[in-house]
Amino acid sequence: MGIQGLLPLLKSIHRPTELKKFSGETLGVDAYGWLHRGAISCAIELAQGKPTRKYVDFAMNRVRMLKHFGVTPYLVFDGDFLPSKAATEASRSKRREDGKKLGLELLKAGKPSQAHQELQKAIDVTPEMARHLIEALKKANIPYVVAPYEADAQLVYLERQGITSGIISEDSDLLVFGAKRLITKLDQYGQCVEVNRRDFNACREVSFIGWDDRLFRQMAILSGCDYLDSIPSLGLKTAHRLLRKHKTVERIIRTLRFEGKHRIPADYLALFHQAEQTFLYQWAFCPTTKQLVNLTTLPPDLSPDQLSFIGSFVEPQLAQRIAVGDINPITKQEIVIPAPPSPRKRTASTAHRGSIMQSQSPRDTPKKPIDAYFKDYHRKPLAEMDPNCFHVNPGRVTNEGTQPIVFPLPRPYVDGADLSPPRTYLNGDRRSPRVLRRRTEPISNLLAGNGRSLASGSRRRTGGLEAGASHHPGNAIAGINPRPPKKARLCDDVGLRLSAEEKSKFFSPSGSKAQTARKGEGYLMSDDSIEEALKELPDVEGWSKQPDRRRTIAVFQGESGTLNNGENASSGSSADLAREILGTVIPGTPPKSALGRFSYIPNALPHDSRPTRTATRQGSISSMRSSLISLTPMSTSSSQPSTTRTTPPTQATPQLTPLQQLERKAVSRGKESPTSKLVVPRAPKRSSLGRMSLDSIPVNPAFVPLPPVDVAELEALNRPVGSEDLLVPESETEELEGPGLDNTVLTAKKASRRTMNLSQYRFTLS
DNA sequence: ACGTCGCCCACAT
DNA sequence: TGGGCGACGT
After folding, report:
1. Residue A178 lies in a domain
2. Looking at chain A, which terminus has fewer C-beta neighbours within 10 angstroms, N or C?
3. Which CDD domains match (predicted)?
4. How many domains does chain A have?
5. What whole-number distance in Å separates Cα of residue A661 and Cα of residue A754?
6. For residue A250, what is the domain's CATH number?
């Protein structure tokens, strides 16, 4: 795994979000997790050497889901193992083999369940498997790249180059590599958690104020990472404290040795530096220049020769072929696919592990120019997205809070084309895939000639997403998707239980009817708007947490209770209900009934079980909602259907995220001069007024119904901001401060700010 | 009292 | 496998 405990340490800056928020963006995806999860669904077949490609379906379902949300995935595959890792990997590989044998034996013994369990652990994601997925990606015109070494470095490189604007991964190592926006815990419904590097200063578990990337990286390494064994009893907190106190690793080690409390290897410092350099300079493939580059430009006094542990340089020609997937990054031989052309599941299977041959079959690889794969990512207009997406997320229902949450989900993103059976094998297990492949390397390895390696095991399991996106023209775009009607669901779910979801959330086999309904709705947007509103809730309040969502759900539930089941999506009464709700949400036409529901919802809602925030929220919720609804003129959204994304992302506006805002506060509180940052509030730049208005409202922003998708706004919000300092506190800031925050201290300030902001907004907005 | 480490439970399949 | 919770050690 990456850095154990890192994400929990950053918990206060986790921003529960929805994938939809990233609509219009290209996000890097660690393909390993998806492949691994997909492989789990067919672990037995793989172990038996059967020609299955179910794992491709799994990954492609996720791809569709992303597309459904308007997100362009840029898949990044792992390449070769770092030198030091080779040995480790070999032993691991053997372990897998043993596990496989055990599993097969169990299978023969008539214990399929146990067999599968064992085989899952023995899953090995091979370059051939990656290649199969790549073939599917090519057909779907999805950008991808095979990293020369670790996908982590490649993902961060792409993000730094602006090729992607965020990274979907479960590996906390990415933050150590320098990822700016890490999107984790993505589930099949599009729910996820965003961790922004910029929010670090707002971290409440430990203070990162005054810290730079280097210190953060050192803290992580010091506590133990994939490239360096940890020092017993020295975790993140301690590493953080030590760094704060002594500033340099050298001093820390010297002190620790002096104290004699920890046992520190003689070569610890050397290994430490190797680990540090591995995070800094690991090789990545530059899609633009088509050659290997160091993640971070090497300083003049450093040459790749001195960094044997980051792997060796690969000639551009070869690197390029590896990058597109034609060559096995490990063996450096061509990957030959037996007979992939037929889309059906049953194509020839690749031998589990070694189907690397020398001859390449022409048909297998389309002869597109390599560039083609790197360059075009198409973005999907929101319009294409399926409007009806609400549905309950069963998983989250019980999740942290325990309360059921309802969300808008895109369901069937089904494109007809590639999908095999719409079945979603949704999430495979969540076991961390990467671990299998990579692991932390023992220090000894590092020392040993290579330096170190990196085997980072990561826990990557990307959240599941099963849905497919239907953007393709051929299919019926959004309307076509056969998914359970969102509306119905909302109602149902809300009212009923989350279970409503049923098996295929994204693809409902019979979904056609639902589709029609959606399209019909002029107001589809309404759905979207609702979704937005829902989404917002979480964001706003909580950027803190998910409980918010639940509430939301709860609200709906109250209503839904009356409603019918979600089954008849389009036609059902539930649908009507949904409409009503939507209407309420939507600015222009807020049905009273809807409002009423919202208002009373609070009551209905099961209160947040969570101790801290609950009280506040609940009390205010109803009022907030009503107020929000009435107050917020979401004009922006109302005018246009959510489905259409008209506005191009306006990026100029630096938007502070709630976390960032907190950060500022923290900073201001802290020593650093906050003034410039905090003071600067300027007129909101963002395109969407609606949002601002929302923010400005004293009420908890979470409850404000958002307008249908305001693409520009979303983008602006999400867009990486230039310098944090320069950013002006915006509406979002307020959100941060909203009830969602646990921090009591901040709360007071927040409240005050909101008010302030509101005034500002009003001026500006009006 | 805090932090780390180990055990138990769970999620999703 | 990962997260949460409880116990032990500093």
Report:
1. yes
2. C
3. H3TH_EXO1 (cd09908), PIN_EXO1 (cd09857)
4. 1
5. 12
6. 3.40.50.1010
